[in-house]
Amino acid sequence: MTVIEKGPRQLMIRGVTDFDPAQIFESGQCFRWTRLDSGGYRGIAGRRALTVRSGKPGSGILELSGATEEEFEGFWRHYLDLDRDYREIRARLSALDPVMQQAVKHGQGLKILRQEFWETLVSFILSANNNVSRIAAIVERLARTLGSPVPGADEGHTFPEAGWLASAGREDVSLCRCGYRLGYIMEAAERVSRGWIRETELRTLSSEEARSQLMQIPGVGAKVADCVLIYSCISMDVFPVDVWVKRAMENLYFGRPACMKEITAFAKARFGELSGFAQMYLFHYARKNQLRDVTIA
Q1: Average pLDDT for the chain
Q2: Domains contained in the chain, CATH given
Q3: Tens digit of pLDDT for each residue in 79-101?
Q4: Which terminus of the chain has fewer Cβ atoms in its 10 Å neighbourhood, N or C?
Q5: Using CA of residue 262, residue 212, residue 278, residue 106, what is the dihedral sign?
């Protein structure tokens, strides 16, 4: 991978593989990246703002606006997960069965972003009975209301830290229109800010133990916990089951309705340590092909 400075805070990255901005930033894993009318995506992460554009298909080029080479090497390279070998992951999954062959073929530009734990936790607490656009709108209101301005990001703001959100009080946070999830977010902020839930500790635990800790937070069930573990890159061997993944598993593997317990047990046995990546490809495939619920004939 080669980094070329094109101008002040303008970079061209050559030799990038497996990176399709549309597939990644519209995959439902992140909520602070916006498609620009002029092309590319604008996002905020780690108190930084960045615009990402891809070159011609197959060129292996990414164009980044808003970062120096030092900032790219120190933060964005890791955040965008540019050093993970996704070709190897796809090859290993494709070797399992024809279903995964098709799923990875449709998602060759996907990557799992290395997002901040606290923001990811709140984002997926908000995901319950919600859609991506509404989640993104609430996350943005939280940032604008309680976050800090990001230099060079026009009107962009950081996501508020747990301690700041906890001290703000319910009345201020309620202005962000979180609905019934307000209490869950405030409880999560309290637990994280007091150190009752620590990212550093979660990273030392097995996925089962980490899931169990997260599920102590009101509003965090197994699916939300697993999404947090994957999208903050704490554990990659979990398999969150939402409506799209359930449809994928029932249509492509079971051929009949299946319960969550049955699906997760199957995924653990079939995909093992690659469960999180398998879930990503199956979710993308199900949405792209608009798979429907399986019903009993």
Answers
A1: 93
A2: 2-83 (3.30.310.260), 86-105+233-297 (1.10.1670.10), 117-223 (1.10.340.30)
A3: 999 999 999 999 999 999 999 99
A4: C
A5: positive
Catalytic residue among 6, 56, 111, 223: 223
43 strand-pairing partners: 33, 50
Catalytic site includes residue 223? yes
pLDDT one-digit tens code per residue, 42-52? 999 989 999 99
Indicate whether 153 pLDDT > 70. no
Distant-in-sequence, close-in-space partners of 243: CB < 8 Å, separation ≥ 6:
none
What lies within 8 Å, CB to CB, of 38 at 6+ separation is none
Q: Pinpoint the alpha helices (H) of 148-274.
A: 162-168, 170-174, 182-193, 199-202, 207-214, 222-231, 243-249, 260-271
> 163-187 as b/e, with b when 16 or more CB fall inside 10 Å?
eebbebeeeebeebebeebeebbbb
The closest alpha carbon to 188, from 139, 126, 122, 136, belongs to 122
Opening angle at CA 270, ends 200 and 285, nearest 5: 85
- Per the CB < 8 A criterion, the answer to whether 23 and 109 are in contact is yes
